[in-house]
Write a structure and sequence with these properties.
alpha/beta; Nucleotidyltransferase, domain 5; binds adenosine-5'-diphosphate; binds magnesium ion; Phosphotransferase; ATPase_NBD; D-glucose binding; ATP-binding; Hexokinase
Length: about 450
């Protein structure tokens, strides 16, 4: 029918616009490399902030002792205690407690919030096993994962709150989840050179040579290294395959013009892009019947885990797709033909995101000169990946991995390893407290 062909035209146009042929991905990787240089050259030199993290000592794996970490996410936080056994012994033991933050503290003063956190931490410290207390005069040390960009002096505020209740603990490192993941990965494998988070949002961090950071005017650290928090979600390039749906999503978002890369590849947005394409098909091609299903008009109603479930549907009649459309969007009686279109859209959106993420990783490897195999060199480069999207969206993960291989070519691909870093972020902060200890 005429309407069906209109729907097919919308699908086809979307497919063309969001396509990521290999040449385009190479341009994205080159642009990432260029922007990394620009962001390192000067403050505000690029959409990529390339933040200097002050983490200049990554764990070697030989650290020993008892270290604490505090992982502050959205609505709850975790306190951890990690017992490190030194060379070859690794993590001997770890304990953690999860605490939910009362809602009124999330919107109240930061002093009240930090007082609450400090008292929860003190409670946790009180359960420290006998025989593990620090010797007299020695402070406990803490790594703090704080995954929001902040202007406030969070270390100072936390320290003040701890002092108030007599908790003698030093904040040895303040990092975000990406740097925590990098540290956690490095503790177990010294070939880890970068970390990428693909969860609700996305970010990357990597190890740069301090002398390759023109905007750094401080002393060159003893290690010669400095971890850079790229804030790569804000990367943009004319080579990103933007469609009308991405432009509208951005315009109607809370941060228009910002986080362009993130809006193409992260879990927060993939399902929402799908909703927008389906809405257009409903409006302009009566794809779901004469009326537009009201639920389809609700922003962010289609979540990425639901999209993932539809994308992985292996039932012959695409039952999962049918049920999701019914349960979430209240669209019943979908034909197999329609369900197949939905799966195809999932595939287009996830494939674009995964391939762009792979191109971003290639950009980092290029910046470090690790994108080509060097004759006679056995150098390995490991990238630690974490986040719910990478962990649970199998097709996304597989596409990312195969695209990176495709971009690198067979020989270079053998030198690059993608490793799933399981919950590096919490433990990573404790490991950073160890590698930044004042008693080293
Ligand atoms: P965060 O990024 O919020 O710190 P996570 O790393 O756990 O937390 O990632 C959670 C995100 O991962 C979710 O917002 C969602 O977008 C994505 N996600 C979780 N489960 C799935 C799934 N089964 N399929 C696809 N994406 C998922
Ligand atoms: Mg996270």
């Amino acid at each position: 029918s005429r309407k069906w062909s209109r729907a097919m035209a919308i699908l086809k146009e979307f497919e063309e616009k969001c396509g990521t042929p290999i040449g385009k991905l190479r341009q994205v990787a080159d642009a990432m490399n260029v922007e990394m240089h620009a962001g390192l050259a000067s403050e505000g030199g690029s959409k990529l902030n390339m933040l200097i993290s002050f983490v200049d000592n990554l764990p070697t794996g030989d650290e020993e002792g008892l270290y604490y970490a505090l992982d502050l996410g959205g609505t709850n936080f975790r306190v951890l205690r990690v017992h490190l056994g030194g060379k070859d012994k690794g993590v001997i033991g770890q304990e953690f407690a999860e605490v939910s933050i009362p809602p009124h503290l999330m919107t109240g003063s930061s002093e009240a919030l930090f007082d609450f956190i400090a008292s929860a931490l003190a409670k946790f410290v009180a359960s420290e096993p006998e025989g593990f207390h620090p010797p007299h005069g020695r402070q406990r040390e803490l790594g703090f994962t704080f995954s929001f960009p902040v202007g406030a002096d969070v270390v100072g505020e936390l320290t003040k709150s701890m002092e108030k209740i007599g908790l003698d603990m030093r904040v040895a490192a303040l990092v975000n989840d990406t740097i925590g993941t990098l540290a956690g990965g490095r503790f177990y494998n010294q070939d880890v050179i970068a970390a990428v988070i693909l969860g609700t949002g996305t970010n990357a961090a990597y190890v740069e040579r301090a002398h390759a950071i023109p905007k750094w005017h401080g002393l060159i650290p003893k290690s010669g290294d400095m971890v850079i928090n790229m804030e790569w979600g804000n990367f943009r390039s004319s080579h990103l395959s933007l469609t009308e749906y991405d432009l509208a999503l951005d315009a109607e978002s809370l941060n228009p013009g910002e986080q362009a890369f993130e809006k193409l590849i992260s879990g927060m947005y993939l399902g929402e892009i799908l909703r927008r394409v389906l809405l257009k098909m409903a409006k302009e091609a009566d794809f779901f019947g004469d009326t537009v299903p009201p639920k389809l008009k609700v922003p962010f109603i289609l979540r990425t885990p639901d999209m993932s479930a539809m994308h992985h549907d292996t039932t012959p009649d695409l039952k999962v797709v049918g049920n999701k459309l019914k349960d979430i969007l209240e669209i019943s009686n979908t034909s197999l033909k329609m369900r197949k279109i939905v799966v195809e859209l999932c595939d287009n959106i996830a494939t674009r995101g995964a391939r762009l993420a792979a191109a971003g990783i290639l950009g980092i490897l290029k910046k470090l000169g690790r994108d080509t195999a060097k004759v006679g060199e056995k150098q390995k480069s490991v990238i630690a990946l974490d986040g719910g999207l990478f962990e649970h969206y199998t097709k996304f993960r597989e596409c990312l991995e195969s695209t990176l291989k495709e971009l690198l070519g067979e020989e270079a691909a053998e030198t690059i390893v993608i490793e799933h870093a399981n919950d590096g972020s919490g433990i990573g902060a404790a490991l950073l407290a160890a590698s930044h200890s004042q008693y080293l």
